[in-house]
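Here we describe the complex-level prediction in full. Unlike the single-chain runs in Section 2.1, the two entities below were treated as one system.
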Amino acid sequence: MDIFQMTALECGAAIRDGKLTAVEAAEQVLAAAEADKTNAYITVCREQALARAAAVQADIESGRLTGPLAGVPFAIKDNICTKGVKTTAASHILGDFTPVYNATVMDRLEAAGAVTVGKLNMDEFAMGSTSETSYYGPTKNPWDLTKVPGGSSGGAAASVAAKSTLISLGSDTGGSIRQPASYCGVTGFKPTYGTVSRFGLIAYASSLDQIGPVARTASDCAAVMDVIAGKDPMDGTTLDTPAAGYLDALTGDIKGLRIGIPKECYATAGLDPEVAAKTRAAAETLAAAGAVVEEISMPFLEYVIPAYYIIAAAEASSNLSRFDGVKYGFRASKEDYSGLVDMYNATRSEGFGTEVKKRILLGTFVLSSGYYDAYYRKALRVKAVIKQKFDEIFAGYDLILCPVAPTTAPALGKSLADPMAMYLSDIFTVSVNIAGLPGISVPCGFDKSGMPIGVQLIGKALADKTVLNAGHAFQMLTDYHKQFAEVK
Amino acid sequence: MQITEELVSYVAQLSRLRMSPEETAEMQKQMSEIVSYMDKLNELDTDGVEPLSHIFNITNVLRDDTVAPSYAREDILKNAPEHTEETFVVPKTVE
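The structure predicted for the assembly as a whole is:
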């Protein structure tokens, strides 16, 4: 059986029904990962995966593992710690790092019988929107290898779109799951902040980071949420909310669902008319299924990017101070430094890439004495305004619908040449992180050159099931998510 | 806000980063562009708005003070670039 004809849930069912073994499923994904042409993987862990698949298969046959994802092969973004499997965050500075512990999401996936086949490429420390800042070379878009897959979870999206895996875990700090999902024509879900434990996620901006699934369907994403969501004593910011019931919530019924379309999104300079048209058509599809679609205002849209980059850079500069060449990872060679502080300087200068250094510098600047109030505190005030405005919108609406990104995937190299343009392309995704909201990207069409377009659905905090159900309803009515790239 | 090369060098020093003159000049250019965009926030009147750190009302999280197994020291040390059997090794800091 070709598992690449299946969704993750179908693969799990086939394994449960004895039509396929977990080992056969792992073999197929390992072979696809090893032959992957998009540079989606940093590490393929064949031996560990096959050993685990055999153990999982035995547990399925003995009835110890009965869940819907038991035996399903997974690929994992390389900023999520995997015990015994190298975890680099796509950085030189962590090139030799092998975690001695699992991220909580990995413990939970393994307890559910998932099999990890490899670690996925990304922007270095998740800083970027194209997956080009990886120390291990850029990932390419499966639909057109001259284009970027988006980022920072570029490997997570490209691997699903290229049939190099069925399902993956990414992380989303300012759109890093949703935007690559959109560029690669797959489904990506960013949960409400605090729903999924960040323990073992290599931190970029802790108040914004959230782990989530990238998959073929919203229902596959919901099945992953049933496994990974829930309070974790190792992450004090996890919320005490009911952990499960995501898959059961997918009724496909959206009658009476109130959806607002922000007019400011569609007035954004640089918005591709084809992206505008396809996402508006998606709204009409949902309206035809019973949703009530109205135009709304998101008056703060032009302030989300500066607020986001101040907060994200500030937290990054603090989080990345731990990389000092002492406890793990790379250290500069002895002839390059004299004394302890100089060792830090040499190690960090050689170990970090340019984009990471830039964000550390920006973050240190906005937090430094004399500028803290004008930049960092100001951004936190704007964050309060943004949250307030979202609260007002969600008093009248269940969901916001808008594009994920203003364009389809840009050409490789283009964003590195104009970093400011790359930052601006995050305009539709970052406010979701600032306000801690759940959001999904689902495929809604293709542009004239055949590149995928995604539509974003945003819910109020803790309305993750509403968001997933709307994505599921859309996928019951459309088949964009059933189309795959022919990688050439 | 004017970002000068001196400011970039100062911030680089705070960040424990070495910068060549070429890198400093390039960062000065890129940071100027971004920071002038960040200055856009000044258009928005936030007088009387309290800075918001956490989206949800979070409270201090306490746990029971119980002994639990930790990671093995030898495993942790395997990831260190230089170590003895018991400790990390850093360049000499005290004469």
